[in-house]
Write a structure and sequence with these properties.
Blueprint lengths: L1 E3 L5 E6 L5 H11 L6 H11 L3 E6 L2 E9 L11 E9 L8 H15 L4 E7 L3 H9 L3 E6 L9 E7 L1
Parallel strand pairs: 5-6
Antiparallel strand pairs: 1-2, 2-3, 3-4, 4-5, 6-8, 7-8
This protein binds coenzyme A.
Coenzyme A binds next to β5, α3 and α4.
Amino acid sequence: MVARSAQSVEVEIARLARGELAVVHAVTRACFDLPYTLDTLKEYRRRAREGFLVARIGSEIAGFSIATAPGFPWSLFSRVGEIVLIGVRPDHQRRGLGQRLLTASFDHLRECGMRQVRLHVDVTNARALALYKRNGMRVSHVVRRYYRNGQDAYRMVGRL
Ligand SMILES: CC(C)(COP(=O)(O)OP(=O)(O)OC[C@H]1O[C@@H](n2cnc3c(N)ncnc32)[C@H](O)[C@@H]1OP(=O)(O)O)[C@@H](O)C(=O)NCCC(=O)NCCS
């Protein structure tokens, strides 16, 4: 998947490659107040497989997304994928990379047979909330004290 963004920078959205996890970890430290540990990212790499995507600009990783899907066989209600995390380095934000990563994650979950998607987002994270709403997701309810720092989260759901 190689295409040009609105600013004519060549961006590649692709599966995380061998040896790139440490770079993604550095990106999470730049993006989040409470970044995941490298071990947690390793666990998500194991669970997400092809759903762990990166946005590359040349040899640089500008962002990433992690989407997980339950394995087959599904129950009647289990075709629900999850966007675990999405992050774009601050110096690459507001150029459409978050949108590209989210679209690719939704495509991946569809390819895995998922019919719905869900995620959690900090109730104060207006930019992420706007991105998800623009992509057809809606707030289902508030999860009190969801994050380690005691912050509440919106649980959001959408159709794929
Ligand atoms: C949320 C996040 C992933 C969005 O990534 P992003 O690459 O900035 O997203 P996009 O560029 O696709 O869209 C963001 C904004 O840029 C605007 N935009 C997109 N392309 C643009 C362009 N070429 N020029 C100007 N603005 C543009 C979008 O309209 C959108 O506007 P809004 O913030 O007013 O709604 C990013 O802000 C981030 O990593 N935040 C920190 C981590 C985080 O909070 N992650 C989500 C937790 S689950």
